[in-house]
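For homework, think about our next protein:
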Amino acid sequence: MPDQETTVGELRAKWRKFVSDRDWNRFHTAKNLSMAIAAEAAELVELFLWVEGPESNDMARGERLTATRDEVADIAGALLAFCNAMDIDLSDAIADKMAKNERKYPAETFRGRWRLANKPLSGGESVSDIPPSVPKTGNGDPVRGET
């Protein structure tokens, strides 16, 4: 069932049948399914906890490939179940969101960066307010005290 040969509609139909065959529709509320998506995503995150970026890529493609695929499938299944239960057309939702992202993050402005230099950080300061000598996290925010 390769991506190039399978539609979102076919995947949704398979998931709908799986859920129906088990009489799980009554449990498929927005709250339960959104929590399932978050829980499955957390299981994917856990596979790479305390592993650096490049090493995590190698692990996802190598020793943890099966576990990574399983968690990705669990996330996708929960998302498809959510879309089925809430009557959300996933393809339309993605297309609409991509159009918003194209407007919000024009390529000529954001190529090679994830935020503008003068955009406020979580602490209210902007990137240009932080001296170069201050250690930064992987996302460019200044390292703060332990939480």
